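In response to reviewer comment 3 from the previous cycle, which asked for concrete evidence that the modeling workflow produces usable outputs, we include below a single protein chain processed end to end. The sequence was submitted unchanged, and the resulting C-alpha cells are shown without manual editing.
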Amino acid sequence: MFTVIRAEQLEFDPREQMSRIFAEGFSQWLGYFSNDKQAIARAFEHMFLLHHFYVAVTEDRKVVGMTACTDGTVSSVKLNPKELRKHLGLIKGTIAGLVLKKEFEATKATKGAPSSTHGSIEFVGTDAEFRGQGVAMAIIRHIVEHAPYEQFLIEEVADTNIPAIKLYHKLGFQEYKRKPIPQKRAEKIGINHIVSLKYVK
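The workflow returned the following C-alpha cells.
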C-alpha cells in the first residue's frame, strides 16, 4: 500500500530514492553518459525541485513512484554542472550539463510555444519492484484531480514504451503529436518516434 503526496511535504529528503527510479526508468536515454545506473542516480540526485514533484510512498518511507507537474513555464529540475562532472567525469559530465540542461530544463516558453494554463506532466517513473501495481496511475490521477489545470500534457514519450502509452490512454489521454527521431539516433537508442499526449477534463 502507498500514499501519493507532494514530495516537499515528506518528513525526509526523497531525492536519493527518486534518483534511483529516474536512473532505472531513463537509462535508455542516458546510456551515452554511463551504463552504470548507480552512477547515473548519483549524478542526477541533486536536480529534483521537490515542490514540483508528487511521489508515491509506502508506510515504511519507501518512494515507489514519482511524477512532476508544472504549468509549463518553469522547469521541474535544475542541473548542477559540477555534480554531473563529479559523477560522470569531466568530458561526459560537461556534455551532460550542456545537452541535458537544454532538454530537461526546457519549458513551453523556451520551446517557442506560448505559456498557458495547461499542466505539464514530466518525469513519470516507478520503482522496478512496484511496476504493474498501479503506482503511476495513482500519481497521475492524483495530479489530475488536485492540480489547478483543465488540460494536461505528457510530452516526449518513447513510442517503444508501450506500457506507458497504454496507461496514459487508460487515464483518458489522447495522442496529439508524433515526432520522428533521426534514423541514426533511432537505430542507436531503439526508439523511432516521440509521442505527445493530452488530457482534457
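Residues 90-104 form the longest helix (15 residues). We consider this sufficient to address the reviewer's concern, and the full set will be provided in the supplementary archive.
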